[in-house]
Amino acid sequence: MPENNETRYCLWCGQPYQAIYKNKIYDKQLCHMESHRYRQMHYPELTVTEFKNMLIELLKDNQHINPKHPLTRIKKETEKTINTYHEVNKNE
To answer: What is the pLDDT of residues 34-79, one digit of tens each?
Structure first.
């Protein structure tokens, strides 16, 4: 039974979606599967809940382990920009 219909952001890819149920955390099945595989390969000792909580804590620090997540892309672009400035400073 639908409980609400609010906009949320997928815990794995960061894309907005309409949450029909209050416990829904992924926008599509693909994100759920990718997250599950990642947890099994890299964090087999964590339960699903522990992994979810780890992702939430990373998000609080503006980080994410998914290379496709917008925060990861922003971090990479920021690092490129900073490295560019470091190169300019070396050449002066």
So the answer is: 999 999 999 999 999 999 999 999 999 888 999 888 888 887 788 7
Integer Rg of the chain from CA? 17
Q: Compute the distance between CA of residue 4 and CA of residue 22 in angstroms, rounded to an integer.
A: 7
Tokens 């780890």 -> residue: 54
Q: What DSSP string describes 7-50?
A: EEE-TTT--EEEESSTT---SSHHHHHHHHHHHHHH-TTS-HHH
How far is residue 55's CA from residue 39's CA, in Å, rounded to a whole number? 11
Structure tokens of 6? Answer: 């609010």
Q: Measured between alpha carbons, how far is 43 from 84 in angstroms, rounded to an integer?
A: 34
Report DSSP letters for 39-67, one per residue. Answer: HHHH-TTS-HHHHHHHHHHHHHTT--S-T
